[in-house]
Write a structure and sequence with these properties.
Blueprint: H1 3-17, H2 20-33, E1 50-52, E2 58-60, H3 61-67, H4 81-96, H5 98-101, H6 113-123, H7 126-134, H8 146-152
Antiparallel strand pairs: 1-2
Length: 161
């Protein structure tokens, strides 16, 4: 399932299980917190930026562009299910195409040490090894299962007895 379908399915589930007021409140908060009228569109030239990075480093758009194309996305935080679906889709696409990210590079993720470290951490998890060993036959939990709904929307469910 592609990202757009995952987002639509998640939104449909959210609307189905959350109270009408909660859906309206969440969507209103999202609109307020994100100045969509000032957002650039896919393919538009992004304004230059120089932002603080990890461990005191700087993230400068012009420096990144010298390395090649840049994917710039808006990530609100780990608490945002829509953002996490988008991030997972980007991670999957990057892993799937890592050999083409930096054509000719011996290590495709060498210019991105923080991302490389994050993927190595994920790859070291036993669950990842089991999933790879199981191939396509492995049944992963869906975001829409009962346990996930209770975790994502605890106020919609009574406390467990």
């Amino acid at each position: 399932m592609g990202l757009e379908q995952e987002l639509a399915a998640f939104r449909a589930d959210f609307i189905r299980i959350a109270s009408q007021g909660r859906v309206a409140l969440y969507e209103a908060k999202l609109r307020i917190s994100f100045a969509q009228g000032r957002a650039i569109d896919v393919g538009d030239e992004a304004p230059g930026f120089d932002l603080p990075g990890i461990n005191g480093s700087r993230v400068v758009l012009d420096d990144l562009l010298r390395l090649g194309p840049v994917v710039l996305t808006f990530y609100r935080g780990g608490w945002c299910p829509y953002c996490n679906l988008q991030l997972r889709a980007y991670q999957a696409a990057l892993l799937d195409r890592a050999s083409r990210v930096r054509e000719g590079a011996e290590d495709a993720l060498a210019p991105l040490p923080n991302l490389k470290r994050q993927f190595e951490t994920i790859d070291a998890r036993p669950a990842v090894a089991r999933a790879r060993a199981g191939g396509q036959d492995h049944a992963f939990k869906q975001v829409r299962d009962e346990e996930a709904k209770r975790a994502l929307f605890p106020s919609n469910y009574p406390p467990a007895a």
